[in-house]
Design a protein that fits this description.
PspA domain-containing protein; elongated; 2 helices
Length: 101
């Protein structure tokens, strides 16, 4: 069907109501969280996993910080100083060998 003002390329469309039908509008009941009971009490597995995660996180942070191990800040500073001195000594040795000493 063309518009009455004369342009044959313009087609009149139909307006469709975009509200859902009654059958589609029925809300489904919310699914319960698998980690909690209907009364809101967390499951044993959920609590155990949460405690284990906190424990392993604390162990990891101790390892990263180097506390409680032989890798204290002073020990690491000494290792760095020893490595730097060894590098300087090796560089001096290479320079002496290149000069033919």
């Amino acid at each position: 069907m063309s518009k009455p003002d004369g342009d044959p390329n313009v087609v009149e469309g139909e307006i469709v109501d975009d509200t859902p039908t009654a059958a589609l509008a029925i809300p489904s009941p919310p699914l319960p969280d698998p980690d909690y009971s209907e009364g809101g009490v967390p499951s044993f597995d959920f609590v155990r996993d949460k405690i284990e995660n906190r424990y392993t996180s604390s162990l990891g942070s101790v390892d990263v910080a180097g506390l409680g191990t032989e890798n204290t800040a002073e020990a690491l500073d000494k290792k760095i100083a020893d490595r730097d001195q060894a590098a300087k000594d090796r560089l001096a040795e290479i320079r002496r060998s290149m000069r033919g000493e």
